[in-house]
Amino acid sequence: MNAFSHAQSGNAYNFGFLDEYAKKEVRRAILKAIAIPGYQVPYASREMPMGRGFGTGGLQLTLSLIGPEEILKVIDQGSDDSVNAVNLRHFIEMTCPGVSTTTKTTECTLIQSRHRIPELPLTSNQIVVLQVPYPDPLVVVEPSEDKRKTMHGEADYSRLLVKLYEDIVKFDEITISHRYPTRINGHYVIDPSPIPRWDVPKLNASAALILFGAGREKKIYAVPPHTKAEPLAFSDVPFRVEDFRDEHGHRRACTRCGCTDSFLDEFAADSGSKTYQCSDSDWCDEQMLLARQTEGEPA
Amino acid sequence: MNKILEVRNLSKIYGPGCPLCLESTGPEADTNLCPHCGSVVAIHDVSFDLFEGEILGVMGESGSGKSTVVKNLYFDQAPSSGEAIFYDRDKQHDLFALNAAQQRWLRNHRFGMVYQNPHLGLNFNISAGGNIAERLLMSDLMDYGAIRERAKALLARTEVLLSRVDDLPKNFSGGMQQRVQIAKALATQPPLLFLDEVTTGLDLSVQARILDLILEIQQELKTAMVVVTHDLGVIRLLTGRAIVMKYGRVIEAGLTDQILEDPQHAYTQRLVASAL
Amino acid sequence: MSYVAIKGGGRAIAGAAAVTEFLRTEEGLSETLAEPLGIDAILHQLRHLVDRVVSEGGVYHPKFAALAIKQSLGDTLEAAFALRAWRSTRPRLLATPPLDTSRMRLIRRISSAFKEIPGGQMLGPTPDYALRLLRMELMDESPDAFRAVARAWLDSCPEARLPDSFPKVLDALRAEGLLPPVTGRTQAAFDITREPLVFPVPRSAALATMARAETGSLLAVAYSNMRGYGDVHPTVAELRVGYLPVMLPHPITGEPTEVGEVLVTECEVVAMYEADDAGGKPMFTIGYGACFGHNEVKAISMAILDRALQKGMKDGPGNPSEDPEFVLLHVDGVDSMGFASHYKMPHYVTFQSDLDRLRTTQQKSGEPA
After folding, report:
1. Whole-angstrom Cα distance, residue C57 to residue C79?
2. C48 and C117 housed in the same domain
3. Domain check: are A204 and A290 in the same one?
4. What's the pLDDT score for residue B192?
5. Does A237 touch chain B (CB under 8 A)?
6. Which chains does chain C touch, 3 or more C-beta pairs < 8 A?
7. Does any domain span residue A236?
8. Within its chain, how far is the Cα of C141 from the centroid?
């Protein structure tokens, strides 16, 4: 059922849905997260009117940070128009009257995203809020949260590294595809949310502040601007992003805009053949516009 | 010879403790259980020195507190009181004054431990090589090729078949598990090794080969060791000096030969006599 | 083949909402006059549904609970969820002092420990001894017959004055020295709505978490303990259901003043005795459960788990039901249903990344089988 109808029926909600005490608490947790890069700050995550796992953590960060001046972009899987992005944007527009929204990465000041960081390099005027299902990279080797807390405190990541070692022994490759464990500022290792490996290098020395919100697991963490972010790897088996080369070794291009240096979505056509397009829809649009302008220019 | 470890007045009491605990327990009282408060005085007032490259034996029956000594020194448990100084090259560490991260660093880099129960020393869900890799990764070696070479070399040194480097320890024999544990403990070439009943429960022929291995390692690497055992044969073969414990107290200390040939304490006399 | 795989998201969502609304109102098309479901009908005739939703939603607001049930088409997980989300928007202005459950206006009270208890046993409304036979006469109940049942009951009911308060069974056991004395009364209760659970957590945090847990989840974990993955072996010392006066300090005088009442279920179990570590006498151990609404299965499950968790906190968990992390992080309905649902969302990007890893790995291990 749609929670909007209830709000639309005149039941007044506070600006940003949450009550001001709740927002203040989230902001305090954000400040702490920025002060200790990569540390998972526990907070009393509130229930939001969408499912846990649909971005309630990111949403609480966005709602706590947003003011009427903000220009917001919401993406899911790189697209502003995917169902979840639309749903979240509607909700924010409804509960934050006066806030502008955009699909353009160049225009926005605040980006809430699930699974992607935009291709366009971000600026110091921007904040990225990533939605996080599993905040703790150690969960694959240690189920107890209590024990994991100590391991983080002591920067004890050897068991995680052994997993990489065992991967290479078994498969001759590190098999972690997304949620790639990344060490922040030389200490805490974070789960950078289910972004592809392609996006992990964007965390390193980013001009924009990158925030992570896990609603169900009730944690907030941050990669502050200009902070070191290093994916775990061996010196002789380096970290690698997704490979988009075809069987002849050529880099695949987006069939829509022709771009050869973006993360691609794979589509299976009815004929059984595969085509590829940019995952970041705004980036794809911009590339097409650019191409058209270049074509239109006199030689 | 340089001192590597200095242990003074180490005590560990399980339970609430009371003013009568100490006088009501120990060899004279013939118990380590305080009749007044029910606390267990596992060890009390244990002091000894260990020198570089030396093997010290800690002997006693079960319940004497001998394992508690090494568990405290390896930070598996925190002592109730006492002090231990570890002399590491030009630094010295006051072991029980360090914070958890510093203690962990020492455990990973400068100490090694081999437990009687291989489940305590090995992760049974990762391969033998992975177990050694874990310890190398803890000490910040980040080159996969180098880690793998080192793991293989250590397993070769401890006579584990190289074809089994990627097998899980749970599929190994007891003797082989101990060899992997020793390889893991040696991975960072620690100057100090703790061995807690490492051959107990193994076949005699397997025991003999593991003891040989330990001696060879000590001669090759000049590793100082504290060997905890109830087995006088192990004490005789490995150690130069020994302490004898009963109900948590040290009742006799000295050169191993002297203790075994001419025991002073009546308890030690009985122990030695029963082993002959 | 085009880029529109994810275009039109907004239209799709609106369409989904519209067709759900159609299902809710479809009956309005039928020949016979169909009344929309009234909030009062839900409140009264589906009272246990409302009980579940106020308890799992964590707000005692039966009317909004009934509304949530109506708009979610009777899905308790969804309804509790909507109530919880509404709660997020409300500031917390006051906290009550601990309320005295001996002052409950009881509708039911039993003890399985003693045949006679001070104040007496009172069976009250319970299906425990009813035969679970389908009552075909309810298939087509007329409004007159409906009214007649209630009237007949009231007419036949003898006038009786119940006392204002009933003594607690546990107090008698405590007086005999069979139970440990009450401790921890001076500690402020942990507020799970304002503080995150960082383990180890105090018992009050565990109790609060279980009080708004999803009934089925709590029952499943408690049942594992009852069946043998645990050893609580409880006896229900007392189970009471009734209306608990809610007291708040008077804004001017500061005197505790009754501001209303909430329907609650409370269960206290007594479990096998344990030796005292400090050398004192062995005593029975206790488990406590309480929740909004009339929900006995939940209160009993909670009491059993409270006992199990206390044991786990003391001696280390011997099985899942004694592990505070395992129990407390897996019984919340809003958390668990949300996460189960989220798998339906697009995961194109992560799956693309998975494909990349598998293909590379397959290539390296020779031709795929």
Report:
1. 8
2. no
3. no
4. 96
5. yes
6. A, B
7. no
8. 31
For helices A158-171 and B144-157, angle between their N-to-C axes, nearest 10 degrees:
90
- Answer whether B37 touches C (CB < 8 Å): yes
C-alpha to C-alpha distance for C70 and C14, rounded to whole angstroms: 20
Q: What is the ipTM of this complex?
A: 0.83
Residue C280: closest C-alpha in chain B = B37
In a structure prediction context, what are the per-residue pLDDT tens digits for chain B, which is 276 residues long? 799 999 999 999 998 889 999 999 999 899 999 999 889 999 999 999 999 999 999 999 888 999 999 999 999 999 999 999 999 988 999 999 999 889 999 999 999 999 999 999 999 989 999 999 999 998 878 899 999 999 999 999 888 999 999 999 999 999 999 999 999 999 999 999 999 998 888 888 888 888 998 999 899 889 999 999 999 999 999 999 999 999 999 999 999 999 999 999 999 998 888 876
A83 CB near a chain C CB, below 8 Å? yes
B106 near B91, Cβ under 8 Å?
no
Q: Please, what CATH class does the domain formed by B3-110+190-275 belong to?
A: alpha beta
> For tokens 């992760």, what's the residue?
B123
Would residue C254 count as lying in a domain? yes
Domain count of chain A? Answer: 2
From the CA of C345, how many Å to the nearest CA of chain A? Answer: 7
B35 and chain C in contact, CB less than 8 A: no
In chain C, the number of structural domains is 2
Using left for φ > 0, alpha for ψ between -120 and 50, and beta otherwise, residue C197 falls in: beta
Contact between B147 and A156 using a beta-carbon 8 Å cutoff = no
pTM of the model: 0.83
- Provide the number of CB pairs (under 8 Å) joining chain B to chain C: 5
Owning domain of residue A19: 4-231
Q: Which residue of A has its CA nearest to B140?
A: A158
Q: Do A116 and C87 touch (CB under 8 A)?
A: no
- Same domain for A216 and A247, yes or no, is no
Cα A133 to Cα A130: distance, rounded to the nearest angstrom: 10
Of residues B130, B135, B143, nearest to A235 (C-beta): B143
C180 to C172, C202, C265, C309: CA distances (angstroms): 12, 18, 23, 17
Question: Do A223 and A251 fall within a single domain?
Answer: no
